[in-house]
Write a structure and sequence with these properties.
The complex is a heterodimer of chains A (158) and B (230). In chain A, 16% of the residues lie in helices and 47% in strands. Chain A is α+β, with helices and mostly antiparallel strands and 158 residues long. The longest helix of chain A is centred in the first third of the chain and has 25 residues, at 2-26. Chain B has helices spanning 2-12, 16-30, 85-102, 125-135, 146-156, 214-227, and strands spanning 41-49, 54-57, 63-64, 73-78, 112-117, 140-143, 160-166, 169-172, 188-191, 195-198, 203-208. In chain B, the strands form 2 sheets. In chain B, strands 1-11-10-4-5-6-2-3 form an 8-stranded mixed β-sheet, with helices on both faces. A 3-stranded antiparallel β-sheet of chain B has the order 8-7-9, with no helix packed on it. In chain B, helix 4 links the parallel strand 5 (112-117) and strand 6 (140-143). The chains are: A alpha+beta (158), B alpha+beta (230).
């Protein structure tokens, strides 16, 4: 009797697990990096490419890192009224078969008030939470900043 | 060149005070002689005086107009809580300075780079200096009481505004408005990313609008230096 109850539950959990794995694989994270910052920097930024190879939209709703003390927010820099404006985002949507570049001067993940500022070469653990509930974990390497908009600005229209 | 200048001015009209400055610049444009060819820099038809200023600088008794005499100075306005734009621009300026050093420019001839924090509420002089030295040991990080910073910034055409977020929505709070306690330290600062070049007379000489390419800035600086009587 017991077995007949456990069995479908187990199967369901397995299905759920495999689905998660599959869904997580669909968001491809490329070249995740954190910009090296002054030791007393009150804010840090995390960049990466997000590619969605699936047939449905993927929505990033939350990011966490292994850096203690930091509040993590999703942000986008936009040029408006002659100023570079920081806009907090509730989510970052990666449309089906599209990609979004998190890069200087554009989308980024912002860490506010880190207890420790990592130095170039260090690795930072990152967990992205998608709207589907799926979590994706990976490491971002810390490196010195490259230039903003050097490849021509406004070319990533999403 | 004039078109770019007009674009820049249009972006700035949100601040009425800047409008006045812009008008003066625009008037200047009308009777300009041909400026030397530059890639990213916009040379002012006539260099413009900046008001008397006295900024706090860690490690010295202060930074004033006198410190501009005899050398070229790049000014950038930002704040250390800046996650994206300031680190990028400080990196660009550091890269520019490294290129000049590598090219063998004598120490006395190197321009100085001044980062002015427009956020003295959170940025203390010591912290600002530590912050900018990470990008280049020659950088100077300065600030002052808010009103003084605002006056200097406006005289050059730098603009900025504080933004608070409440429940995921941005609120722009004017200088005369009261800030809710819970939000006091959480604000971001939207700001122009223009870099200002002052000549050895301590007058505003050229502006560099975004995007900034360090190698182009090096070339523009050379063109500007060779075209002047400094």
């Amino acid at each position: 009797m017991k077995r007949s109850i456990l069995h479908p539950l187990g199967a369901f959990l397995m299905l759920l697990a495999s689905f998660s794995l599959f869904a997580a694989d669909e968001l491809m994270v490329t070249d995740p990096w954190m910009r090296a910052a002054p030791p007393n920097a009150p804010a840090l930024a995390l960049f990466m490419g997000l590619e969605n190879h699936s047939s449905s939209d993927i929505i990033l709703v939350e990011a966490k890192t292994t850096i203690p003390g930091a509040r993590v927010e999703l942000h986008r820099t936009v040029m408006a009224d002659g100023m570079m404006k920081m806009a907090q985002q509730s989510e970052i949507k990666v449309a089906s078969h599209q990609s979004v570049m998190l890069e200087p001067g554009s989308w980024h993940i912002m860490l506010i008030g880190p207890d420790h500022v990592p130095t170039a070469g260090e690795k930072v653990g990152v967990t992205l939470t998608l709207k589907s509930g799926v979590e994706q974990k990976f490491e971002a390497v810390v490196r010195k900043g490259k230039m903003m908009m050097n490849s021509g600005h406004g070319h990533h229209n999403h | 060149m004039k078109q770019r200048f007009n674009d820049l001015l249009r972006g700035g009209v949100v601040r009425s005070l800047i409008l006045v400055t812009g008008f003066i610049l625009l008037l200047g444009c009308e009777h300009s002689s041909e400026p030397p060819p530059t890639e990213g820099a916009i040379i002012l038809p006539e260099s413009r005086k900046v008001p008397q200023f006295e900024l706090l600088h860690h490690g010295s008794s202060g930074f004033t107009n006198t410190d501009l005499k005899g050398k070229w100075s790049f000014f950038f306005y930002g704040y250390t809580h800046c996650p994206d734009v300031c680190p990028t621009e400080l990196f660009n300026l550091a890269e520019m300075l490294r290129q000049l050093e590598t090219a063998g420019v004598a120490e006395a001839e190197l321009p100085q780079v001044v980062f002015v924090s427009v956020d003295p509420q959170r940025d203390l002089p010591e912290g600002i200096q530590r912050y900018v030295e990470f990008y280049h040991p020659r950088f100077k990080g300065v600030t002052a009481e808010q009103g003084r910073v605002d006056q200097l910034a406006r005289s050059m055409g730098a603009i900025y505004e504080k933004v608070y977020y409440m429940g995921g929505k941005a609120l722009v709070i004017g200088q005369d408005e009261t800030i809710p306690d819970a939000l006091k330290d959480t604000y971001l600062v939207n700001h122009s990313a223009t870099i200002f070049l002052l000549n050895p007379e301590g007058e505003l000489h050229a502006i560099f609008t975004t995007p900034h390419m360090p190698d182009a800035m090096v070339r523009d600086l050379k063109v500007i230096q060779q075209s002047g009587q400094f």
